[in-house]
Amino acid sequence: MGHDQRDTLKDYWSRDEQYYTPFYNNTMVRNCFFHILRFLHFENNEAPPNRDDPEYDRLWKIRQIFNSLNSKFCELYHPSEHLAVDEVIVLFKGRVVFQQYIPKKHKRFGIKIYKLCDSLGYTYDMTVYLGKQRQLATEEITPTHGIVLQLIRRVEGSGHKLYMDSYISSPALYDDLLERKIYTCGTVSNDRHGMPQEIRPKLMKLKKGDIVTRVKGNLSVVLWKDKRDVYVLTNMHPPPLDGNFQDESGCAIKPHVIEDYNAHMGFVDKSERMVNSYGMARRTWKWTKKLFFHLLDMTILSAYLLHKSCDGKMTHKKFHEILVRDLILQSHEANITVRGISRGRPSSSGAQLS
C-alpha cells in the first residue's frame, strides 16, 4: 500500500476496472484486513494506569513496542562519527494531549519525536515529546537539555560529533556534552543564558561578510553576517578570524564552521524523507495506530540501512518490494502448515490400536 497510494482503503480491494489489482484479494480478504485493523491494540485498555500517579506515562498504550524497537535500533548498529539531533512531526490532527503545533514545519500538527541520526539517516535513538516536563526549566537549563542527554546516553564517551539547531543549543548543554566526550556544533539564539552580551545585534552594526568570534575555554561563539545574523556555537572547530570576507562578486564567504554545520545538520530530515517515501498512514486513524505504522516504516528503513551498511546494492524501493513478497510467502507457508494439522478427537480405531 505504501507503493500504491489510493483515496480509501476499500479502493485496494475494488473490482472497478480503474482500481482492480488481484494482489490484494490474493493476499488477504478485505473484511479480514479491516477486522484486524479495527482491533489492533498494544496494551490492555481494561486496566489503564492511574492518571494521578506522578509516574503516569502518556505513551503507555504503545510504550512497550516503542521501547523494544528503540533498543533494537541501538543494539544492531554502530553509528558513524557525525550525528545530528532534531525534531520530526508525525502528522496527526485528532485529539491527543501531547499533540504539538509547529507553524514552520510542513506538517504543522502532530506528535513530536526527537531523533538522533547518523550520516546514513539511521535512527539510532528517539523519544516522543509528551508535553511539559514535570521539572521546571531554569535559565541555565533549557527544556530540551534533558532530552538531548537522554538521546546520547548510549554514545557518550566515544568522541562523536553532534550537530543541533538553535531550538536545542545552549552553552550549558555544550559543556555537559563535552564532559561526556561528545563534541558539538550548532546554531544558537543570541538570548540564551551564557551567550556574550557584547555581540548582540543592538550593540553591533555588521556589514555583509563580517565575522565576529568570542572564545571562552573550549567554547567558541561565531557571529556571521550574510542576509541576516547567524550565531553558531561550537567546541569542535578552531575559532575563525575576525574581519570582513567577501568574494569578487561581493557575496559573503562562509566560514568553515558554517559549511560543516550545513553538511551534517540534515541527517534527521534525510531519515524522515526516507521513512515517508512509502508510508501508508491514514488521516482517520487513532494516534496509537498512526504512531505504530510510522514506527513500522521506520523499522523497515532501519533494516534497509543495515543492509546498505553491509555493502548491499538494493534500492530502498526494491528492498520494500522483496520484503513484502517474502513476508507474504512465509505467511502462506505458515497457514498451509497449520491447516495440515489434524484437529478434534482421535478416531476410536486409532485409540484401540494404541
Report on this structure:
With 354 residues, the protein is α+β, with helices and mostly antiparallel strands. It has 3 domains: 1-39, no CATH class; 58-159 and 270-326, no CATH class; 166-264, no CATH class. It has 10 helices and 10 strands. Strands 1, 2, 3, 4, 5, 6, 7, 8, 9 and 10 form a 10-stranded mixed sheet that branches. A hairpin with a 3-residue loop joins strand 8 (219-225) and strand 9. Helix 3 packs parallel to helix 8 (287-309). The longest helix is centred in the C-terminal third of the chain and has 24 residues, at 316-339. The radius of gyration is 26 Å and the shape is elongated.
Radius of gyration based on Cα positions: 26 Å
Q: Could you give a short account of the major beta sheet?
A: 10 strands, mixed
Output the structural class.
alpha+beta
Mean pLDDT, all residues: 87
Contiguous low-pLDDT stretches (5 residues minimum) are: 134-139, 349-354
Number of helices: 10
N-end to C-end Cα span? 52 Å
The run of helices and strands is HHHEEEEHEHEEEEEHHHHH
Shape: elongated
Helix fraction, binned, reads 25-40%
Task: Give the SSE layout.
Elements: H1 22-27, H2 30-38, H3 63-75, E1 82-91, E2 100-101, E3 109-118, E4 123-128, H4 145-151, E5 161-164, H5 171-179, E6 183-187, E7 210-216, E8 219-225, E9 229-234, E10 243-244, H6 256-264, H7 267-275, H8 287-309, H9 316-339, H10 348-353
Parallel strand pairs: 1-5, 5-6
Antiparallel strand pairs: 1-3, 2-3, 3-4, 6-9, 7-8, 7-10, 8-9
Task: Summarize this structure as a short list of keywords or feature phrases.
17% strand; 354 residues; disordered C terminus; 32% helix; alpha+beta
